[in-house]
Write a structure and sequence with these properties.
Length: 194
């Protein structure tokens, strides 16, 4: 082999390595987008860079993998559902108390399933790994709760918080082996309209 052939071989090998690296990055990006949904874009906005966002989401996943997340027993799911129904029914007469109950129930289910329940930001990060489809609901409900503490939440805002909490609660209650365990949102909507 002469020098030109060696240079060409090295150049081709370098191009192959770059293409493989780009394909790996692209596959990781697609996997994170699929796993985190809208949380992927939100994290990019918060961190200011795609690389930092992907690093953050990977760290969340690694932290989540260290947690011992367990499904609820059928008995506990039924008990929690009953308490949720009570909180919903309470909303008509005591919207503030009902919203507080809803937030408390979400945290209790998180605790029982094995999620840490420290600061809100950490709870949201931990939930986003397996519950990305409802994490925006959790953030919105939390924002309304904060507005309420400042005296800036209307009854309609509180109703929306309940709807958001219901989505999170249902996702947390769901056991992959029993998709029927979600909170019955159609029933809630028909009760609300009645």
């Amino acid at each position: 082999m002469d020098a030109d052939e060696i240079v060409l071989l090295i150049a081709v090998a370098a191009v192959v390595v770059v293409v493989i690296a780009l394909l790996a990055v692209s596959a990781r990006r697609r996997r994170l987008r699929r796993q985190f949904g809208g949380e992927y874009d939100r994290t990019i906005d918060v961190t200011g860079s795609r690389r930092d966002a992907e690093r953050e989401l990977k760290a969340r996943t690694e932290r989540h993998d260290q947690l011992h997340i367990v499904p609820l027993s059928p008995t506990r799911r039924t008990q929690f559902r009953g308490r949720w129904d009570d909180a919903q029914a309470r909303f008509v007469d005591e919207p503030l108390a009902a919203m507080s109950d809803a937030d408390q129930l979400v945290q209790e289910v998180m605790t029982e399933r094995g999620y840490p329940t420290g600061r809100f930001d950490q709870r949201a990060s931990d939930l986003s790994v397996e519950h990305a489809e409802v994490i925006e609901n959790y953030r919105k409900a939390h924002d309304i709760a904060l507005d309420n503490e400042r005296g800036r939440a209307s009854t309609e805002d509180l109703r929306m918080a309940m709807v958001h909490y219901r989505a999170v609660f249902g996702s947390l209650l769901r056991d992959e082996s029993d998709d029927r365990s979600t909170v019955d949102t159609d029933r809630y909507e028909s009760q609300r309209r009645a």
